[in-house]
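#structure-requests
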Amino acid sequence: MEDPIPPPPVDDQVLAIVRSLRGVVRADFLTSADREALRGHATSSAADNRGIREVLGRERVLCLFKDAAFRPPPEPTLLLVDAAGKILGREVVTDEDRRASTERRLAFLGKDFVLSPGVRPAGTMHFLLPPVRFPELESVPGAARVVSASPDPPQDEYLRERLGVPRRNNLASILVGYDRGKP
């Protein structure tokens, strides 16, 4: 009886899965120098990008560029929070979410953002880009604490230059981070 072929290492498996996703144009792992450069290109003037900080804190970080065919995020990528972290508003990410939001009579701020009525802020308010789940990798053996986030504009520019991706308006970058865990 032949020995079974061992599964590919987790990094190879993760990269293969991400590259196979509909709408992914390019996907590559980042180096430690890339990660340091991204930390240096972070901005905080528009929003607190907590998601990027969490991604960069993972053992492995992958950058993907996607087009409009890529799936919508599984949860909001933009929140309005107060000083205590209470959510005052959020991005609406799917049609189902949009229908549920209108049924609850939430106040829309534009077509894709809702404010929660009756919620009073404690202190100052600011926008937060939270870490977001990346469901396609959550069940990969050996990939633990999977999280994704959208980079700030200067970080996106760095990634485009570094990975040779043209500055076209129809592509967006996403960073995915994970730790190597027990398979």
